[in-house]
Structures
1.
Amino acid sequence: MENLDVFIPMPIQVVIDDVGWWSGEDGSQRQEPYRTGIPRSHVPADYQAIVDMGRMLGIRPQAAMILCEWDKENILRQLPTSTWMGEDWDNSRWVGPWLDEAAGIIRDNPDHFELTVHGVGHEYWLNGTFTRAEWTDSNGQMRPPDQIEKHLDYFEKLMNQHQLGPFPKSFVPAAFRHSFGPSTGRNVSLAELFIFNTL
Ligand SMILES: [Zn+2]
C-alpha cells in the first residue's frame, strides 16, 4: 500500500442545499421547516466559506437559497402559504447587520457564488400545517399556478430587499419534489412558469 498515487478529479460543479436560513434549527416537529439541522445560527462567514471554496476550486458554486428569513419588511404576511406563521409572519428576530454583510459577500463575488432559487420557506403551509414541498407536493403535483407565480414574485421581492442581483437562472426544487412537464390537473409546467418569470 506504499507509494500510492491518488488523483482527485476537479469537480465541475458544487451545489449547496438550503443556504439562506439564519436559524439552523430543525423545527419540523412543530410545523416549522427542517432548515439545515446545524445546531447554531448561521453567520456571514458561512457565505464567505462558499466564496472561498469557489475561488480555491476555480468554480462558481450554486447556493440553493431559501429567503424567508431575509424578510426585513414582513412582506410574507401577504403570502401565508410560504411560512409557518402565515398571516402573522414576523421575522424581526432575524433582521440585523448580518443581512447586509452576507448580501455584500454575495454581491461582491459573482464569479464564486451563484444564487440559485430553492424557495421562500421550503415547504407549503395551509392552516399552520406544512406539506412537502413548496413547489410540488409529494405526489408530484405542482402547487396551484397562481401560488407558484406568487412564490416566485416574493422570492424576487426578497432578493430586491437586499439588492441580490437579477433573478437567478438556476433552480433546485425544494425537497427535490418536482415534476417534469405539466403534472396531473395542471395545464402548465413549473418550468414554463419559471421562464415567464425570468423574461
Ligand atoms: Zn432544501
Note: The chain is about 25% helix and 10% strand.
2.
Amino acid sequence: MKKPIILAVLGVLVAAYFAFDLGQYLTLEGIKAVAEDLRAFQQDNALLVIAGFFLAYVVVTAASFPGAAVMTLAAGALFGVVLGTVIVSFASTIGATLAFLSSRYVLRDSIEARFGERLKAINAGLERDGAFYLFSLRMIPVFPFFMVNLVMGLTRIRTLTYALVSQIGMLLGTIVYVNAGTQLAQIDSLAGIASPGVLGSFVLLGIVPWIAKGIIGLIKRRRVYAGFTRPKRFDRNLVVIGAGSAGLVSAYIAAQVKAKVTLVEAHEMGGDCLNTGCVPSKALIKSAKVAATIRHADRYGLTANEPQVPFRAVIARVLETIKTIEPHDSVERYTGLGVDVVKGYARIIDPWTVEIALNGGGTQRLTTRSIIIASGAQPVVPPIPGIETSGYLTSETMWQAFAAMDEAPARVVVLGGGPIGCELSQALARLGSQVTQVEMADAVLGREDADVSALAREVLEADGVRVLTGHTAVRIEGRTLIAEHAGEEVAIPYDTLIVAIGRKARLTGFGLEAIGVDTDRTVTTDEFLATKFPNIFAAGDVAGPYQFTHTASHQAWYASVNALFGQFRKFKADYRVIPAVTFLDPEVARVGINEREAAEQGIAVEVTRYELDDLDRAIAESETRGFVKVLTAPGKDKVLGATIVGAHAGELLAEYVLAIKHGIGLNKILGTIHSYPTMAEANKFAAGNWKRANKPEGLLRWVERYHAWRRG
Ligand SMILES: Cc1cc2nc3c(=O)[nH]c(=O)nc-3n(C[C@H](O)[C@H](O)[C@H](O)COP(=O)(O)OP(=O)(O)OC[C@H]3O[C@@H](n4cnc5c(N)ncnc54)[C@H](O)[C@@H]3O)c2cc1C
C-alpha cells in the first residue's frame, strides 16, 4: 500500500474516533454497557461477534487508540478466559504489528520527533539484550503498550521476530486482564466488587508486573552468570578496585555500615585527584596567581615587579601540598576506619573473585559478594606521527618532570583547549613560560557559551598565552609541533609539550574483557551503576560520563549502597545537578544548562545577566572581570542553569547548586540577606535583575494611580 493511502486510512480512523466519540465505548462503563447488549446478540451470532470484536481490537491497537486494556477486560466478560485470551492474543499481536509497520514505513519522522529520547533508550536496550529486551518490555510495562509498538518500528528488529516475541511477551498480561474481565462481568451490584474472585483478579493485575520482573531478572541473571561457578561462601562483602575519589568513598561507606571490605590500590592512595590532578594543579594555580598579582601590583597602588620564580621551590610547594593532604586518603586512615587496604594490582577472575598481585610480591585471592570498579581514567595521547619520541608530558608525568626543573620551561606547547589545558596554560604563562595553546575546535572551553569561551580566551591572552584555535596537531618533528590551520601548516617549536586533550577510562588489563563486562568509552552500567553482572558496579571516571572528583564520590554512594543493599532497595544515580568549575583566573563555574545546551535541546529560557564591574566588592578587589548569568524558565523564577565567571566563581556557584537541587527560585534568593560587601551579593543582584525584568507592569500602573489618588 502506498504511504498516502495508509495515511488516509489512519486519518479516517482518527476522525471517526473523534467524530463518533468512540472513546466513550472504551471506558469501563462504556464497555460494560456494550457488553450487555452484545451478550444478547451473541446467543445467535457468536461468530459475527467474535469477528467484529477481533477487528475492532485490531483497529484500536493498530491506530494506537487508548482503550486496549478495557477491551481486554471486555473480552473476558464476553468470551471467558480461554476464548478471550486466544482472541486478544492474536488481535493484539496483529494490531501491534500493524502499528509497528506504520511507524516503520509511514510515520517515521513524526514518531522520531515525538519519542526520540525514548528511542535512544530502547535502541540501547535492543543492542544490549536483543529480542529479549522487547520481551521484557512486553512483560513489564515500563513504557505504554502503544509507545513500544511505535518506537520499535524505528529500530532494526525484524517484523516476524517482533510479532512472535510480542505475542509471547504479552501472553501473561493478557491472561490476567481477560481473567479480571470474566469477574467484572459478574459485578452487578457494588457488593459484587468485594467478591473474592474479583479481588483476586485485581491483586493478580497488580502483582503481575512484579512477577514478570522477577522472572526476567532471574532469566537475565542465569544468562550473564552462565559458565561461572559461584562460591559457596565469600571472604568479603565488597572488593573495591582503585583508591581514588570513587574507591575511597565506596570503601568508607562499606566500612561505616559494617561490611567486610577490601580496597585495592596499585599505585598511590588518593588516585589522580590527590597525586596528579586537582590538588597539584590548584596549588600551582595559586602560586601563579600570586606571581600575576606581583606583576600587576600597580593595580593595587603598589609597585609592579616582574616576579622571581624559583620554579623548583614552586613545585616543592605543590608537592608539599599533596603531602599535607595525603593523610586524608592514607592506608593508615582507612585501616583505622575498618577498611582492609591492600597495595597491589587487582584483576577480576570471575564475577565473585578478585586476584591481587601484591606490590610486595605474591598474590592474594579474595571471593566477594560484590565488586566496585573504580579504576579511574588516564590521559588520551593522540596517535600522531612523532609523538612517541616527542618527549611529551601529561598530567600523570609532568609533576615529576617539573620537580627536576630549576626554571619554568621556556617554550611550552599545551595541546588541548579544555579545562585542564586552559588551567595549565595560564598558570605556566604566569610563572614565566612562553605558552602556546593549540586547540582543534574554534574556541577554548568549547562546552561553555560563546561569551564564556571568548572571555576565557581574552584572559589567557592577557596573561601572554598564544591561543591557537582551529589548529589541528598533525605531527611532531624533533621538538616542533606541526599543526594544520585553514589548509596551511604551522610550525610551533617547544621545549616542553604537554598533552591535555582529554582522559579515557582505564578499562583494560584487569579482567573486564576476560569475564565480559560490557564497555564502550567507559564501563557500561545501568542507572544503578551496575554492570551487566548485577553484583559488579562501577563508579568515578571509569563509569563516566562526568570526570570530576565530586561526581566520583557522588557515584560511589550509589554504587556501594546498591552493591551492599540492592536486594532490598536500589537507588538510581541522580545526575540532575552537577556543578563544574574551571579554575582559570577568573574562574568559570556552571551548574545546570547553559544557553548553548538550551538551544541544542530546544528548551525555552529567559537569560538574566549581572556584570561584576558593578559589584562593590569586586571593584574594591580590582576583580571586575566576569558576570553571573542565570537561565530561568520563561516567566518563572525557577533556575534551570547558572554560569558564573569571576573571582571565586566556584564558591559563588554553591548558592545556585542549592537553588536548583532544592527548587529555590530567584525570588527567594532575592529575599535572602547576603553580607555586604561580598562577591556573593552578585547572586542576589542577578536575581534582582530578573525581578526588574519580570515586574508586574499592569499592577504597578494601578499602584501608581493609587498613589496619585492618595496625594489628592
Ligand atoms: C590535571 C587535572 C586536574 C583536575 N582537576 C579537577 C578539579 O579541579 N576538580 C575535579 O572535580 N576534578 C578534577 N580532575 C578530575 C579528577 O582528578 C578525577 O575526576 C578523579 O580523580 C576521578 O576519581 P576516580 O576515583 O574515578 O579515579 P582515580 O582518581 O583515577 O583513581 C583510580 C585509581 O585506581 C587505581 N587502579 C586502576 N586500576 C587498578 C587495578 N587494576 N588495581 C588496583 N588499582 C587500580 C589507580 O592507580 C588509581 O589510583 C582533574 C584531573 C586532572 C588530570
Note: The first strand starts at residue 236 and ends at 241.
